[in-house]
Amino acid sequence: MKLFSFWRSLATYRVRIALNLKGLAPEVIEVNLIKGHQRDPKFKAVNPMMAIPALVEADGPVLFESLAIIEYLDETHPNPPLLPKEPKARAQVRGLSQIVACDSHPLIVPRVREYLAHEFKIDEAGVMKWAQHWHRAALNGLEEHLSTEKETGTYCEGEQITIADICVASQVAGAGFFKVDLAPYPTVARIAATCAKNDAFARAHPLKQPGAPAAV
Ligand SMILES: N[C@@H](CCC(=O)N[C@@H](CS)C(=O)NCC(=O)O)C(=O)O
């Protein structure tokens, strides 16, 4: 199994957590997003969207999109399960996960920030404001759900670590990158802090990966 990864990638962080929870340790192939290596023709042949993560096993095909990869890992390595059994609980977990991975994260990835800067001449402060805005939009939604819904427990869905917790962890790591204060989001922060104590989350953290700086 090979994982195309980069320390800073929040989507790959999600997959790294799932791999660790499942006890899987693929070979890691770096795609340096700061140097633009995601746009190299060699990597474009791996993932035409020029984005990581991508995961490939010997017999292929290449798997892409963090949530699809995580569900694949969950289906092929069922222990520990990352989705609850009950259909409504599964939908809730997927909904919380998609707030992060589908509503917020795609708006703040390098290609979008670079397009704002190059095509619309938005300066660094403006791009930062954009990223913070979409980051907070997701945090507001997550906090509203998690602080009011009876299903919330130690984790997003009761006492079981699910894909929603993986996504919350990535949102909180992103908040650090984009200097978003977590004080208005105490439930999100509490769940992320609990997850951070789990070795599978801790080892997967962006700042623990090869090439990462000590802090951002
Ligand atoms: N929706 C995708 C997002 C993939 C994605 O955009 N990954 C980022 C890193 S977190 C990337 O590789 N970006 C490259 C770019 O924007 O140029 C997922 O969840 O896997």
Explain what the structure shows.
- This protein is of the alpha+beta class.
- It has helices spanning 10-21, 41-44, 66-76, 87-104, 110-119, 124-148, 163-177, 186-196, 199-204; strands at 2-5, 27-30, 54-56, 63-64.
- Strands 2-1-3-4 form a four-stranded mixed β-sheet, covered by helices on one side.
- The relative contact order is 0.15.
- The structure holds glutathione.
- Residues 9-11, 33, 38, 50-53, 65-66, 101, 106, 109-111 line the site of glutathione.
How many beta-strand runs?
4
Largest beta-sheet details = 4 strands, mixed
What ligands does this structure carry? Answer: glutathione
Measured distance between first and last alpha carbons: 30 Å
Concise synopsis of the structure shown:
The protein is built from 9 helices and 4 strands. The protein has helices at residues 10-21, 41-44, 66-76, 87-104, 110-119, 124-148, 163-177, 186-196, 199-204, and strands at 2-5, 27-30, 54-56, 63-64.
